[in-house]
């Protein structure tokens, strides 16, 4: 029986780390610069997606983090400010469901007010299941959010309700997507996790629905994150297969990556109706270009989505550490980083991976 694991003991902090020179990206053991910070603001969610928070394991008696354990908006903003000095240029808010965190737009405003050493605001995005987006899109845009990614795994109501294990109709999510675009959070990215035998029959309906809308549909290979979803390789529908399925109805041509480390492989519809993206973390891992650091809701840093251990920052934050000490800790964690889980998938079994609903993808 799988277990939900949040609290593997953190390793002892590495000592003697110097903060990087302002504006200079700190690099890990493979020379990968720190560029992205993903901040999970809550471990709670109003969905129980079967591949992420199966209800048998995240039921009424599941112990979510208590409010006092969560980093405050001030603490999150302080970590983000220091991370910008260490090389971060993009910040993504996630969860759990980030729009469940009260006054999330206040945090967006605080983060949007930060500046990189070059004086630019960070690119600030958010990933959401979309249920509260129609209500919140305008406030988020006004607060300074740059863009939004909405997860949607099916257009068929019965299937969507089964996959999300919620009573929420697809129309609610589609309304959220339109509200986000209308508020200027465009282009909206729509993420669909494809699981064979579950929603692979929705690949074409989703492509047909979103082509020509200006929203970018991205297909995500089902991953073995966490310990609770019972992942099996034969449930993965590869990006190549998805391109074949869509290409048979709508001819596609590959697009060049816009920058090194771009996560999605992009394909354009030959008739000009926009593009799709493929996130092939299983069939074509991209660890070599992975520049992402993750901050958990209670202030632990994770250097990989598949990490078993985090590095606590909250104790330092709450003990009155100064910025230099926090910067040194952050740089030390990144410099020691040697993760490349997806490239080595299958070589070593891991029993204690963090859950996606905790760290946010
Ligand atoms: N609740 C928000 C949402 O669903 O967009 C944000 C957090 S959710 C963990 C972030 C993304 O991770 C979603 O797009 C979700 O579909 C994806 N995800 C969750 N479990 C996954 C898995 N096992 N494989 C691939 N993607 C997964
Ligand atoms: Fe919630 Fe997102 Fe996980 Fe679904 S994928 S259970 S919406 S955190
Ligand atoms: Fe990055 Fe870890 Fe994913 Fe590789 S497996 S791309 S290192 S998060």
TrEMBL record:
<dbReference type="InterPro" id="IPR006638">
    <property type="entry name" value="Elp3/MiaA/NifB-like_rSAM"/>
</dbReference>
<dbReference type="Pfam" id="PF04055">
    <property type="entry name" value="Radical_SAM"/>
</dbReference>
<feature type="binding site">
    <location>
        <position position="287"/>
    </location>
    <ligand>
        <name>[4Fe-4S] cluster 2</name>
    </ligand>
</feature>
<keyword id="KW-0949">S-adenosyl-L-methionine</keyword>
<dbReference type="InterPro" id="IPR040064">
    <property type="entry name" value="MoaA-like"/>
</dbReference>
<feature type="region of interest" description="Disordered">
    <location>
        <begin position="1"/>
        <end position="23"/>
    </location>
</feature>
<keyword id="KW-0408">Iron</keyword>
<dbReference type="InterPro" id="IPR010505">
    <property type="entry name" value="MoaA_twitch"/>
</dbReference>
<feature type="compositionally biased region" description="Low complexity">
    <location>
        <begin position="13"/>
        <end position="23"/>
    </location>
</feature>
<dbReference type="InterPro" id="IPR013785">
    <property type="entry name" value="Aldolase_TIM"/>
</dbReference>
<keyword id="KW-0411">Iron-sulfur</keyword>
<keyword id="KW-0342">GTP-binding</keyword>
<dbReference type="GO" id="GO:0005525">
    <property type="term" value="F:GTP binding"/>
</dbReference>
<feature type="binding site">
    <location>
        <position position="304"/>
    </location>
    <ligand>
        <name>[4Fe-4S] cluster 2</name>
    </ligand>
</feature>
<feature type="binding site">
    <location>
        <position position="127"/>
    </location>
    <ligand>
        <name>GTP</name>
    </ligand>
</feature>
<dbReference type="GO" id="GO:0006777">
    <property type="term" value="P:Mo-molybdopterin cofactor biosynthetic process"/>
</dbReference>
<dbReference type="GO" id="GO:0046872">
    <property type="term" value="F:metal ion binding"/>
</dbReference>
<dbReference type="InterPro" id="IPR050105">
    <property type="entry name" value="MoCo_biosynth_MoaA/MoaC"/>
</dbReference>
<dbReference type="InterPro" id="IPR058240">
    <property type="entry name" value="rSAM_sf"/>
</dbReference>
<feature type="binding site">
    <location>
        <position position="51"/>
    </location>
    <ligand>
        <name>S-adenosyl-L-methionine</name>
    </ligand>
</feature>
<keyword id="KW-0501">Molybdenum cofactor biosynthesis</keyword>
<dbReference type="GO" id="GO:0061799">
    <property type="term" value="F:cyclic pyranopterin monophosphate synthase activity"/>
</dbReference>
<feature type="binding site">
    <location>
        <position position="151"/>
    </location>
    <ligand>
        <name>S-adenosyl-L-methionine</name>
    </ligand>
</feature>
<comment type="pathway">
    <text>Cofactor biosynthesis; molybdopterin biosynthesis.</text>
</comment>
<feature type="binding site">
    <location>
        <position position="92"/>
    </location>
    <ligand>
        <name>GTP</name>
    </ligand>
</feature>
<dbReference type="GO" id="GO:1904047">
    <property type="term" value="F:S-adenosyl-L-methionine binding"/>
</dbReference>
<dbReference type="InterPro" id="IPR013483">
    <property type="entry name" value="MoaA"/>
</dbReference>
<feature type="binding site">
    <location>
        <position position="189"/>
    </location>
    <ligand>
        <name>GTP</name>
    </ligand>
</feature>
<dbReference type="InterPro" id="IPR007197">
    <property type="entry name" value="rSAM"/>
</dbReference>
<feature type="binding site">
    <location>
        <position position="52"/>
    </location>
    <ligand>
        <name>[4Fe-4S] cluster 1</name>
    </ligand>
</feature>
<comment type="subunit">
    <text>Monomer and homodimer.</text>
</comment>
<keyword id="KW-0479">Metal-binding</keyword>
<feature type="domain" description="Radical SAM core">
    <location>
        <begin position="29"/>
        <end position="253"/>
    </location>
</feature>
<comment type="similarity">
    <text>Belongs to the radical SAM superfamily. MoaA family.</text>
</comment>
<feature type="binding site">
    <location>
        <position position="96"/>
    </location>
    <ligand>
        <name>S-adenosyl-L-methionine</name>
    </ligand>
</feature>
<feature type="binding site">
    <location>
        <position position="290"/>
    </location>
    <ligand>
        <name>[4Fe-4S] cluster 2</name>
    </ligand>
</feature>
<feature type="binding site">
    <location>
        <position position="45"/>
    </location>
    <ligand>
        <name>[4Fe-4S] cluster 1</name>
    </ligand>
</feature>
<dbReference type="InterPro" id="IPR000385">
    <property type="entry name" value="MoaA_NifB_PqqE_Fe-S-bd_CS"/>
</dbReference>
<dbReference type="GO" id="GO:0051539">
    <property type="term" value="F:4 iron, 4 sulfur cluster binding"/>
</dbReference>
<keyword id="KW-0456">Lyase</keyword>
<dbReference type="Pfam" id="PF06463">
    <property type="entry name" value="Mob_synth_C"/>
</dbReference>
<protein>
    <recommendedName>
        <fullName>GTP 3',8-cyclase</fullName>
        <ecNumber>4.1.99.22</ecNumber>
    </recommendedName>
</protein>
């Amino acid at each position: 029986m799988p277990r939900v694991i949040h609290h593997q003991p953190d390793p002892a902090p590495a000592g003697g780390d110097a903060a990087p020179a302002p504006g200079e990206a700190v690099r890990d053991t493979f020379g990968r610069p720190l560029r992205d910070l993903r901040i999970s603001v809550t471990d709670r969610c109003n969905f129980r997606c079967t591949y992420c928070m199966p209800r048998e394991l995240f039921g009424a008696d599941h112990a979510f983090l208590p409010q006092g354990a969560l980093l405050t908006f001030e603490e999150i903003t302080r970590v983000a400010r220091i991370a910008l000095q260490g090389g971060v240029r993009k910040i993504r808010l996630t969860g759990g469901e980030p729009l469940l965190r009260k006054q999330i737009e206040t945090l967006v405003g605080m983060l949007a007010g930060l500046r990189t050493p070059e004086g630019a605001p960070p690119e600030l995005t958010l990933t959401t299941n979309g249920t509260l987006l129609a209500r919140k899109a305008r406030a988020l845009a006004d607060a300074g959010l740059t863009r939004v990614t909405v997860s949607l795994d099916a257009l068929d109501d019965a299937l969507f309700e089964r996959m999300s294990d919620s009573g929420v109709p697809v129309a609610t999510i589609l309304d959220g997507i339109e509200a986000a675009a209308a508020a200027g959070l465009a282009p909206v990215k729509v993420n669909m996790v494809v699981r064979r035998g579950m929603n692979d029959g929705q690949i074409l309906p989703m492509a047909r629905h979103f082509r020509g809308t200006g929203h970018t549909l991205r297909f995500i290979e089902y991953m073995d994150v966490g310990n609770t979803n019972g992942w099996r390789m034969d449930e993965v529908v590869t990006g190549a297969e998805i391109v074949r399925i869509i290409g048979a109805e709508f001819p596609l041509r590959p697009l060049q990556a816009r920058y090194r480390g771009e996560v999605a492989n992009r394909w354009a519809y030959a008739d000009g109706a926009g593009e799709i993206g493929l996130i092939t973390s299983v069939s074509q891992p991209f660890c070599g270009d992975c520049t992402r650091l993750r901050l958990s809701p209670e202030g632990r840093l994770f250097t990989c989505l598949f990490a078993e251990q985090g590095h606590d920052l909250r104790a330092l934050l709450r003990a009155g550490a100064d910025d230099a000490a926090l910067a040194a800790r952050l740089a030390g964690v990144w410099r020691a980083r040697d993760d490349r889980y997806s490239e080595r998938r299958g070589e070593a079994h891991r029993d204690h991976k963090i859950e996606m609903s905790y760290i946010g993808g």
